[in-house]
Design brief:
The complex is a heterodimer. By secondary structure, chain A is an all-alpha fold. Chain A contains 23 helices and two strands. Classes of the chains: A mainly alpha, B mainly alpha. The interface between A and B is large, with 56 and 43 residues.
């Protein structure tokens, strides 16, 4: 069994080769090598996904298998979610590399090299079963991401965005390392399964502080309020193909790490307090969804808005008419964000809503519906203005952002969108649609959720080499109401976009209302772009999380 | 003795963060960040410390002699290597930002706003 190290080792080796031959290799060869490497990692991920369906793959480096339940070596544990994340990372890196062949006109071999290091780190992060190894891959991922974020280093904007990103995430990394140290001091273990067993089922102040440190550190990467400030800055300045990776997979990896570490290590000691912990995380999650939606709708700078081409909506008004294919892709993307069936996002929203209702949180589906609709509305508003030329020429809402002086990423300008730039986008959208149409999608997702939550089974598989994993779960069909909600989201978003652009009365009232101005003013003041402010928010967030867990989780 | 080491770790963490939050110079801020990092060294070494134990090199001491925990030392060494990379990158970014704007005050870089 040789596959588990490949997604980490192969991109690292090719990255080193590309960097070493920086001046010798022609650009097209370097790009092609990088794309092939990333695609090869994708193929390995598919094979791991198939093999780990019923029984996770466990690989011990150097053959250091655990003896009597104690793991001395470092192990990779690849189950459904881990393999899926490796696949997602490799697909997005491949698409970004294809896109970047025409995106930068002056890219060297260093860009593909950095992208491959990023891919290797993300793969290792998704596969490892060792807490300290998780931290090392976290830092490798961070280092590659900082460099990629400030890649356009001839401008000051990207440099400052990268500094904001780097300082906040490094503080997060120190929190994680301190948490790991405390856990090691208590349990003498670094393997997550072994930690889960050693902690048993008693929660005390030390383990709760360690949990708060580790969780907050990963939540910085996941850009959860109030740790989210760096993300908008990084997005505003990073090259577009890098942004795809930031919101497409890196942020999700932060959430994955919280999920994995919680269920593998801490779920035992917090079993009686699970409800309280859920409420605590819900507060952070709901705050993030609402703030994200408001900021997105009040945003004029497209990439900041997407936190998710360095363009200002106003400059581009009506100019997009020549590139209708791009416009069509944009609308499809917005439809996906709104959760329109059969996009995979539709099923994800359904499953989240179903579990919220099961827990008696009947308000939660409405919050996520509102947030998704507002995000889609902001995108559609952009589309209507740029591609259809709707709306007036002057902006009346006091909008945050759009004050960065930027040079276009592509020099010279293309007359038509090159195929290398729209094909990756079209391919990713098609994958989103196909994933939504895939048979047994929800069943597989529920099975993965059950696996990741089964601490006992995980530990038995990793430490005792037993395979007590539960069987697959039935699909959860969507009701007619769910389909209606998906469609209503898109229609509502379209209506909201039309209203803000074309209905003068609404535009003036919203634009001039003191409440809207005050709200946007406060949010803008908070997103100051100043590192000490961000670190202060981070300290506040950790203190709040730590105090809440010491009070409610003990 | 060990309590002192834990207190030192907590103190370094707090004082480093205070430096980051109040810094008026990007290079100073990055050095403060490395002070926060030093707290993780102190913490890891304190966790592995055993009173009266030898260094965990069994070449010249009989096996079975009490030794301090080699795992945390390996962790610390990895930490040093990883963080040196990050610090070098941060300092390079700060130097480049200074070359482009002539400013080093983190409150005054002001190139991007929310």
């Amino acid at each position: 069994m040789l596959t588990p190290p490949i997604p980490v080792a192969l991109p690292l080796l090719v990255a080193a080769l590309l960097a070493a031959l920086n001046r010798l290799l022609p650009r097209w060869l370097a790009s092609t090598l990088a794309i092939l490497t990333s695609a090869a990692v994708g193929c390995v991920a598919v094979s791991m996904l198939v093999y780990s369906r019923l029984d996770p793959i466990v690989y011990w480096f150097g053959g250091w298998v655990p003896r009597r339940g104690a793991a001395l070596g470092i192990g990779f544990v690849i189950d459904g979610p881990g393999a899926m994340l490796v696949l997602l990372a490799s697909i997005l890196v491949t698409a970004s590399l294809v896109f970047s062949t025409r995106y930068f006109d002056t890219v060297g071999t260093l860009f593909p090299s950095l992208m491959l290091i990023f891919l290797a780190a993300m793969s290792g992060f998704s596969q490892t079963g060792d807490l300290f190894n998780l931290f090392v891959f976290f830092e490798l991922m961070s280092a590659a991401a900082f460099a990629l974020c400030g890649y356009k280093s001839e401008e000051p904007g990207p440099l400052q965005g990268a500094l904001n990103f780097a300082v906040t995430n490094t503080v997060g990394a120190f929190l994680i390392l301190s948490g790991i140290g405390l856990i090691y001091g208590r349990t003498g273990a670094l393997n997550m399964a072994q930690i889960g067993r050693a902690l048993g089922n008693r929660a005390d102040a030390l383990t709760l502080v360690a949990l708060a440190f580790i969780a907050c550190g990963f939540l910085v990467k996941a850009a959860i309020v109030p740790f989210h400030f760096w993300l908008a800055d990084a997005h505003a300045v990073a090259p577009a193909p890098v942004c795809v990776l930031f919101s497409g997979v890196m942020v999700e990896l932060g959430l994955y790490a919280v999920t994995r570490v919680y269920w593998a290590c801490f779920s035992g000691i917090l079993e009686p307090r699970q409800g309280a912990l859920r409420n605590l995380l819900l507060v952070f999650g709901v705050a993030t969804a609402l703030l994200g939606a408001v900021m997105c709708y009040a945003q004029r700078h497209l990439k900041r808005m997407l936190r998710t081409a360095s363009v200002d909506e106003m400059d581009l008004r009506g100019r997009g008419r020549q590139i209708q294919a791009t416009g069509a892709l944009f609308v499809l993307g917005a439809a996906g964000l709104a959760g329109l069936p059969p996009f995979a996002t539709f099923w994800a929203a359904n499953m989240m809503d179903a579990s919220a209702r099961e827990l008696g949180l009947h308000w939660l589906p409405w919050v996520s519906f509102a947030a998704a609709t507002a995000t889609a509305a902001a995108l559609l508003r952009f589309w209507a203005r740029v591609f259809l030329g709707w709306g007036p020429n002057v902006e009346e809402l006091p909008t945050p952002g759009g004050h960065v002086r930027e040079r276009p990423d592509t020099s010279g300008g293309h007359h038509r969108t090159p195929a290398a730039m729209y094909l990756p986008a079209a391919g990713l959208l098609a994958l989103g649609l196909l994933a939504g149409l895939a048979p047994r999608l929800t069943g597989a997702a529920y099975a993965a959720a059950i696996h990741i939550q089964d601490r006992g089974a995980y530990a038995q598989r990793v430490l005792d080499m037993l395979t007590p994993y539960p069987a697959a779960v039935q699909d959860q069909p969507a009701a007619a109401g769910d389909f209606a909600r998906g469609a209503a989201g898109l229609l509502l978003a379209l209506a909201a976009a039309w209203m803000t652009l074309c209905w003068n009365a609404v535009r003036r009232t919203v634009g001039r209302s003191p409440i809207a101005r005050a709200l946007v003013g406060v949010l803008r003041a908070a997103h100051s772009g100043i590192i000490p402010d961000y670190v202060t928010w981070l300290i506040f967030g950790v203190a709040a999380f730590g105090a809440a867990s010491l009070i409610w989780l003990r | 003795m060990t309590h002192l080491a834990y207190c030192l770790a907590a103190w370094l963490f707090a004082v480093g963060l205070y430096g980051v939050v109040t810094s008026r110079n990007m290079v100073h801020l990055i050095i403060c960040l490395s002070v926060v990092q030093s707290s993780t060294y102190a913490l890891l070494l304190a966790i592995g410390y055993r009173a009266g134990a030898a260094a965990p090199v069994f070449a010249d001491i009989p096996s079975g002699t009490p030794a301090v925990d080699p795992v945390v030392q390996a962790l610390m060494l990895t930490d040093v290597v990883v963080e040196v990379t990050i610090m070098a990158l941060l300092l390079a970014l700060a130097v480049l930002a200074y070359e482009r704007t002539g400013k080093l005050d983190p409150n005054d870089l002001g190139m991007i706003r929310g």
